[in-house]
Amino acid sequence: MFSLDVMFWLLAVSSIAGAIAVVSMDDVFWSALCLVVTFLSIAGLFVLLNAEFLAAVQVLIYVGAITILVIFAIMITRNFQEGSTSNGFQIISKITIGLLLICMTFALTSTDWNQWSDYDLRVTPGESTVGLSATEEGIRNVFSDTTPILANLLLKDFVLPFEAASILLLAAIIGALVMVQERNR
Predict the structure, then answer these.
(1) Domains of the chain
(2) Which of 39, 46, 108, 135 could form a disulfide with 62 if both were Cys (CB 3.0 to 4.6 A apart)?
């Protein structure tokens, strides 16, 4: 069985490689498939962070809906076998990506990160809650099961924006189908 560090690095490298492949590939169809790999890797990172609900939402919404909708739109609107047309922004985009990667690397290496050992906190999985401070108890509550908290927020407090977003997505899908149907006549 892999350790968490090995799993993290596998998922991180695959998500970064997939993202780079998305912006650097000439064929739009294969670029969309690399987007699926990126989204699945990010869902795996959510699982490693004990955010299973967000991982499930990532897979259902981004991989299951949005990416498949993009692939569906590519296949309907043009001949995906030919690939995308070449544009003059490839060199500029690759230079920009390189500069952003250098800046992010510099920011990651020069940041003084807060770590558990700096604060002498005793919050680890499976540890008993007896004798924990208020801060440690709060951390344990935050990183415990967040699904009921998110469900309460989505289905009680923010139900109107949640439903408005779903209606907006439905309207966009219907509009895309109407546009494609009119063009084919």
Answers:
(1) 1-87 (1.20.120.1200)
(2) 39
**Per-residue buried b or exposed e for 36-52, using 16+ beta carbons within 10 Å of the residue's own CB:** bbbbbbbbbbbeeeebe
* The pair of three-digit structure tokens given for residue 79, joined into one six-digit string: 């001949």
Residues 7, 44 contacting (CB under 8 angstroms): yes
pLDDT digits (tens, 9 = 90+) for 156-183: 888 898 888 889 888 887 887 777 776 6
How far apart are alpha carbons 54 and 118 in whole angstroms?
29
Q: Specify the 3-state DSSP secondary structure of 185.
A: coil
Which residues, at least 6 apart from 80, have a Cβ–Cβ distance to it below 8 Å? 27, 28, 29, 74
DSSP 8-state code for residue 125: T
Q: Quick check: 83 pLDDT over 60?
A: no
Amino acid at 27: D
Tokens 């997505």 map to which residue? Answer: 169
Q: b/e per residue, 95-106, with b = 16+ CB within 10 A?
A: eeeeeeeeeeee
3-class SS string, 76-123: HHCCCCCCCCCCCCHHHHHHHHHHHHHHHHHHHHHCCCCCHHHHCCCC
Tokens of 26: 């000439």
The two three-digit tokens of residue 24, written as one number:
């650097």
Integer Cα distance of 4 and 22 in angstroms:
27
pLDDT digits (tens, 9 = 90+) for 147-162: 777 778 888 888 898 8
